[in-house]
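User: Design a sequence. Structure:
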């Protein structure tokens, strides 16, 4: 079937030898990036037809020529539609006068703009589906802007947005902590001994007292994962591959991150909050935390940090604490009053993490304090590598994603903990 004006949906014949266009009403449902991807798929099909005849040292036969001409006409119609949409977008940007919209009317110049461009998104999506060898000309140049030193391509596309949003949603430590992005190791100066003012007599000399500082260094530890995707999913243009990769990788990274940000020992991974917090209370029991011990922990934290403080503990610990009562036989636990609002203990929000240790011998069962003094440092954007051959025998393509990050308590006195007996 020939392409009708305004058509854009593509399917193959039963043998898969040629792409056809159908459904004129579907044009409005296709984004500009999707149109470019469909056009690229057709161009690749034209190249396949030529390669077959050239490898056999002959000209195109009548059937091949007919198929080639049909695809060529379809490509022309796609190009016309794409050009028309781009022209309309530029015109609308000029009318709106909005700097963000007007950016589509000029060529991206900085690396940040290039990574945020439609060209990079289109090239990145094509790389995911077909590999680097499918990229030609401007597509290859666009993707190379995001080349990582380890050979991956930076995920600063829709994929990165999905990763960031899902990581923040699943990883409680990213919700509570201070998150920064660095290009190198970051040394953070921390006041270890604050100077004090002194009363002095009239005309007497002032007492000299300088602040003392230490440094906390945030480095970068590598975290990665490999996912296999079937050839069928890669070839299914309707399937949202970017969303699938983003959500699945984010879930894996979030689980590993939270475990390290809570309990990490600093060896090839971040240093957890349980290690960096100040040991304030030792429970009398190896398996039970009492209400008096929770009160002691609450008041062990300086008032300066208490205003923004919250609790972090395992869900099993929360279950036991919810049963505790005061001297008037009233539960000390305060359920959240509104949907989405955390429960409270002594007026402070309580958050659960499955990576917090349970109430067992020697474990750190509860951390209380201002978690903004735990800093997570992300070392640049995440990068994705397509593994073309590793799983090809079984009909899969592998994807490896990795990130570099670190996390540490910057000020130990801002976070206090209970250690079980």
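Assistant: Done.
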């Amino acid at each position: 079937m020939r392409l009708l004006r305004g058509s854009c949906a593509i399917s193959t014949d039963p043998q898969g030898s040629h792409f056809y266009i159908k459904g004129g009403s579907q044009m409005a449902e296709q984004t500009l990036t999707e149109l470019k991807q469909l056009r690229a798929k057709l161009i690749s099909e034209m190249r396949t037809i030529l390669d077959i005849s050239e490898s056999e040292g002959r000209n195109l036969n009548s059937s091949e020529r007919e198929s080639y001409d049909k695809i060529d006409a379809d490509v022309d119609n796609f190009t016309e539609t794409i050009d028309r949409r781009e022209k309309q977008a530029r015109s609308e940007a000029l009318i709106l006068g909005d700097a963000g919209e007007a950016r589509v009317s000029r060529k991206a110049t900085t690396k940040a703009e290039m990574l945020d461009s439609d060209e990079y998104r289109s090239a990145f999506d094509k790389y995911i589906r077909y590999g680097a060898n499918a990229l030609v000309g401007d597509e290859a140049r666009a993707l190379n802007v995001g080349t990582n030193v380890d050979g991956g391509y930076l995920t600063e596309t829709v994929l990165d947005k999905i990763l960031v949003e899902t990581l923040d949603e699943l990883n409680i430590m990213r919700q509570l902590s201070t998150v920064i992005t660095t290009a190198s190791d970051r040394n953070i100066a921390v006041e270890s001994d604050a100077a004090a003012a002194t009363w002095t007599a009239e005309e007497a000399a002032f007492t000299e007292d300088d602040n003392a500082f230490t440094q906390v260094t945030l480095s970068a530890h590598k975290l990665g994962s490999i996912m296999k995707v079937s050839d069928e999913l890669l070839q299914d243009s309707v399937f949202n591959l970017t969303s699938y990769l983003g959500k699945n990788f984010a879930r894996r990274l979030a689980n590993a991150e939270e475990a390290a940000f809570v309990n990490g020992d600093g060896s090839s991974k971040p240093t957890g909050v349980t290690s960096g917090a100040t040991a304030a209370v030792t429970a009398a029991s190896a398996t039970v935390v009492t209400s008096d011990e929770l009160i002691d922990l609450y008041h062990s934290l300086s008032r300066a940090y208490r205003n923004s403080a919250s609790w972090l503990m395992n869900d099993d610990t929360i279950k036991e604490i919810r049963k505790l009562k005061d001297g008037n036989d009233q539960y000390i636990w305060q359920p959240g009053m509104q949907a989405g609002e955390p429960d409270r203990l002594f007026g402070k929000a309580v958050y659960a993490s499955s990576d917090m240790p349970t109430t067992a011998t020697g474990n750190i069962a509860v951390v209380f304090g201002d978690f903004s003094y735990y800093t997570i440092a992300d070392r640049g954007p995440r990068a994705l590598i397509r593994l073309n051959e590793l799983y090809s025998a079984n009909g899969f393509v592998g994807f490896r994603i990795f990130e570099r990050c670190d996390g540490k308590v910057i000020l130990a006195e801002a976070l206090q903990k209970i250690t079980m007996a």
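The chain has 14 helices and 17 strands. Confidence is low (pLDDT under 50) at residues 1-28, 98-106.
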